[in-house]
Amino acid sequence: MKKLISHPVIIFIFKLIVSVSLILGLVFYIDFRSLLLSFEQANIPFLLLGFLLVGANTGIHFLRWKYVLRIVEPSISNADAFNSLLIGFAAGFFTPGQIGEIAGRIAAHPTLRKSHIVGITIIDKLYLLALTLITGVSSIVLFVYLFMDAYWHPAYGIMTIILIPLILFLFLYPEFSKAIFTVIPEKFRRNKLFPVIEIFETSFHNRHGRMLFLFSTLLYTVIFVQFYVFAKAFHSVDFFDSVICSSSVHFIKAVILPISIGDLGVRESASVFFFSKIGFPAAAAFNASICMFFANLVIPSVSGSLLVLKLKIKQ
């Protein structure tokens, strides 16, 4: 029974059911006619601009991935780095927490050590997590202060003031954290899993951390601008309010367990909640979120899937 529940097909079906249920629940809550009317009245130039920003989003993802790849393989080509990025997108789309992305990247680089690919992927994800925490926590605290003052408490501000500088220090000065490796027993170092974290101890330095943090900051900037553009396509919204809401949505989506496909439904529910609090129509928030889903998840994943088919045909 336990094996049946943990089977990939069963997990996929469960996540599909959750995604469909959340989306249908929102559609009935908002009213399907309101959603259609919102799309009919959408500002087409803003919609096109939002989808054009997929190029900037994917481009920064590529620069980040190529940068960490060259830590373990300096001679990696742009084509190989880009191919593995898209294959990783495709492999991670249907898996919990996009864990399949690691397998996709490993498959795209058969000549590199698997442990190195896993190690740099973990580093890659940790820096995205750092930006998620910094932008998400500060935005939610600010959101509560501005729009839900009945729930405000000074402790939230104090927590933010302590947490953000700590995260910044640890990720801008990663070599400081390497002191922990000195206490790792020799027995563990001989374990076959140790090379996964050994890459951080031996090859990852402060300059790498700062560059990766810069790339991650640029990526999140594009994401928040893109969400604003999509939201603007459906209804007028202040840029500052949009950034607070979209970064809060991104944080909630990241901390909730991966219970749906590509966080479909979770993202839309959070978008409706946060944007509605600033007086933004629920239908417009839902549509903007759906556009983000197709732009940043479906399009790259489909491109990666086509690339996988192309490589199989060549082989």
Characteristic terms for this protein:
315 residues; single chain; mainly alpha; 14 helices
Low-confidence parts, pLDDT < 50 over ≥5 residues?
none
User: How many extended strands?
Assistant: 0
User: Helix and strand string, N-terminal first?
Assistant: HHHHHHHHHHHHHH
Residue-averaged pLDDT: 84
Helical stretch tally:
14
Question: Approximately what portion of the residues adopt beta-strand conformation?
Answer: under 5%
Rounded Rg: 21 Å
Number of domains: 1
Largest sheet, in brief, is:
none
Task: Give the helix level as a range of percent.
Answer: over 70%
C-alpha end-to-end distance: 38 Å
Structural class based on helices, strands and sheet pairing: mainly alpha
Shape annotation: globular
Describe, in short, the structure shown:
The protein has 14 helices and no strands.
